[in-house]
Fold this sequence. Notes:
This protein is mainly alpha-helical and about 130 residues long. It contains four helices and no strands.
Amino acid sequence: xxxxxxxxxxxxxxxxxxxxxxxxxxxxxxxxxxxxxxxxxxxxxxxxxxxxxxxxxxxxxxxxxxxxxxxxxxxxxxxxxxxxxxxxxxxxxxxxxxxxxxxxxxxxxxxxxxxxxxxxxxxxxxxxx
Length: 129
């Protein structure tokens, strides 16, 4: 089951990332805007992935591990809110804003799903002999 879930998670993250990045780069924005929203999307995906990894090991972590988990979660929330507010403050029509919000949420959720699946597989793996 974990291998199937892992495959679905990887495909979901790849599809969602490509979906958002291609939609960003097919706009008539200036290069700076394209880079900003692409980097923001990738930052949200990576920070969400790391936050879930840290959180799943939270119960067995020492003080430094718990601090890392807290920082990871805070950074993930800040990155997501920052990108959502950035989209909100544009002068686009609401339909376009919703499109990019949906893409951002899609990337965030698939990143979290992949992270949780990988951590679950790592926790259930048999040690090498």
